[in-house]
Structure formats: structure tokens, C-alpha cells
Amino acid sequence: MINLVTVCTESYPLIYAEKLHTRFANLTNLDVAHFCITDRPKEIGNWAEPLFPSKMSKGWWNKLNLFDPNMPDGKILYLDLDIVVIKNFDEEILYMVNNSCSMNCVSDAVHWMGEKFSSSMMLFDSGAHYHIFDAFLRADPSLTERPGGDQVWVGPQLSDINYIDEKYPDLKKNLKFHLSKREGNKLLLPKALHPSVKLVDCGGRPKPDELAFLPFIKNNWHDVEVSQNTRNMSY
Question: Rounded to whole angstroms, how far apart are CA atoms 201 and 42?
């Protein structure tokens, strides 16, 4: 079983999680179960099954709950909430599922702090990295102040990593670092995408809710229907 698991905690709007799950479900031909790790389980509709974090932390550190051995059995497919799904990427998912490496991911767009590993998209066996979750449970609260964030801490604890962008270089592109240009302090955003791009990572700013003027964001994020309860929530 493939389980799409997102993490939406603290002040992150649940509309991001619902749009991602809904868009993915509308495109895939695979049998995928949907879960969302959240501190607001009662606000999750029928688009996903809520999972309460075993350990509540700050921001992106809550992603470490993905390594909890009590996650749903099977393959865990994780995507950051600010990723916009442009096209079906079943081929790449099946390639990751059938790969023997213990972690499938993409390379970080800028190799932040010298770390190639990116936690923005991952696929791995449920419970396979319990040692990381155990270290997270035992860690001092000051861990969340560690420079570089979760992926700089997690990356060195992993071995046998399959960087899927080495086979599929256009699977996921970062909006700011791969697709845009800079003129001084001005960020020049692309008006269109190359047909081979399937996921657009809008990490940082601007977020998808600020990018309705870009057709590929409007069509694949803003125009994705969500439930009335979620629609009433502000960004």
C-alpha cells in the first residue's frame, strides 16, 4: 500500500493539505491511502484520515513524526504542503517503490548548509527509520533551534539514499531557485513551465495562495475545489 502522508500543524492552513491531497487523488491511477498528521484532527474532512503527532514540535520539525513506527503500514509518500502537483507522476512513484534503497528523495535545490538530502519529497517503508524518530523523542527541545532545520539534521543519519532527480531531473523544480531569475532584488517568475515539469516547489515566499497570476499555479492549485469547511478558512 502507498500512503500519501502530509504534515499540517500549528498555523499552517489546512486548505494547503486538502488541495494537495485532492489534486493528487484527481491525477493518480495508483491505489493510494490519504493521511494528514495534524494538531487539528476534527477539521480534517473525508479527503484524508487524521493522524495526531506523537511528539508536537515546531514548524518543519513535526515532519519527523513521519518516521514514527506507528505510521500506516506500507510505503510512506510525503510531499511538502507548498508543492503544487502539475501532472501525474505515477511513473516516478513506482520507480521509487521498486527501488531497493531505504530512502527515496530529491536533492536540495541549493544543497543548504552542504546537505544534499531534501525532506520536501520522500518515499520510504513505514517504520524503516525508527532510529531517527527515537532520537527525535529523546532530543533536547533546543533541537528545533538547530541551524539548517530538519533535513540538515536528518540527512547525515540516512544511508542508501536514492536521489530520484538523478533519473528524473524535471520531476520537481523549485520555483525560486530552478524556474525563476533574479534582477537585483527582484524575482522574475516564469509565465509557463516546460512540459516535463510535474511538481513545483513553492518553498519559502511567495506561497501558492499568492501566485494566482501564474496560470500553472492557478490551474493546479487555486482552481482545485475544496470542502466548504476548508473554504471558509483564511490562508
Answer: 28
